[in-house]
Write a structure and sequence with these properties.
The chain is mainly alpha-helical. It contains twelve helices and five strands. 63% of the residues lie in helices and 7% in strands. Helix 5 (126-141) crosses helix 11.
Length: 268
């Protein structure tokens, strides 16, 4: 009897196992430039729609800055980064959210970038802002959000329910999506960010700012400044991310490649 129960249990779960293995096999992808393998179970089109929907919701619920100088600065830097970031079919949009208490930024699929005014005292200048925007855009290019959504949905609902979960966009799915794309501080949902993703976004962002004509050394300066600012409390951006010392050391190790890109981008 015990053996027959075991056989029944295995057979009952066999379809789900097969589906899960098929999803894993079909979902393998590679991050541009770094070559890291990743699991992606949603298409770029699905990801784009999810990002667009959440961005429109956020614009309706969060005050948008009317400061002309700040908006001009963000547009200028953002467009320079966008010009060198390879994000297929991107419809770039840069919005400054008027929230001085939130030192945060994000980039949703499709090129939807949000900058909270609380991060501006830390960026200070164009190069500092390029560091932040380059980092966030790198998340979108590397499809880190899609990777986290894929992993989260797979764990939460199982591979068999993944497609339906995306279509229905349930409350659970919305929570996973909002946390995965780094807007948890704004909507009250927080999922731990992968340290590997953050270091990868640092590396790619460093290249983007260099290719956009910003001295990559300024990224190290920004992170040191940001690290010192965090000691005063109240800063939520990247609070679950790598230690600042590790992040800065990793950035410095990538500076030679970034400097080479910067030299190519500088006008002769």
């Amino acid at each position: 009897m015990r053996g027959s129960v075991t056989v029944f249990t295995m057979n009952a779960h066999l379809p789900l196992l097969i589906v899960g293995l098929a999803l894993l096999a079909s979902g393998c992808a590679t991050v541009p430039e770094t070559g890291r393998s990743q699991l992606l179970l949603i298409s770029p089109a699905e990801e784009f729609q999810l990002g667009l929907t959440e961005f429109e919701k956020l614009k309706k619920t969060t005050p948008i800055s009317k400061d002309s100088q700040t908006n001009a600065l963000v547009q200028r830097v953002g467009q320079r980064i966008a010009a060198v970031a390879k994000l297929p079919n991107a419809q770039w949009e840069f919005v400054v959210f008027d929230d001085a208490k939130t030192a945060n930024a994000f980039c949703l699929p499709g090129g939807k970038v949000g900058i909270y005014t609380g991060i501006l005292p830390f960026t200070r200048d164009e190069a500092g802002l390029a560091t932040v925007i380059g980092h966030e855009v790198a998340h979108a290019v590397a499809r880190h959000g899609a990777e986290r959504v894929s992993e989260g949905l797979l764990l939460q609902m199982g591979g068999q329910a993944l497609g339906q979960a995306i279509k229905t966009n349930s409350g659970t799915t919305q929570s996973i999506i909002m946390g995965a794309y780094g807007i948890g501080a704004a909507v009250g949902v927080a999922l731990p960010h992968s340290r590997a993703h953050e270091l990868e976004a640092d590396r790619l962002g460093l290249l983007y700012m260099a290719r956009a004509g910003y001295d990559p050394q300024n990224a190290v300066t920004f992170w040191k400044r940001f690290s010192e600012g965090k000691s005063g409390g109240g800063v939520e951006w990247l609070s679950t991310h790598p230690l600042d010392t590790r992040r800065i050391a990793a950035l410095e190790s990538h500076l030679p490649q970034a400097r080479a890109e910067y030299q190519k981008a500088r006008p002769r």
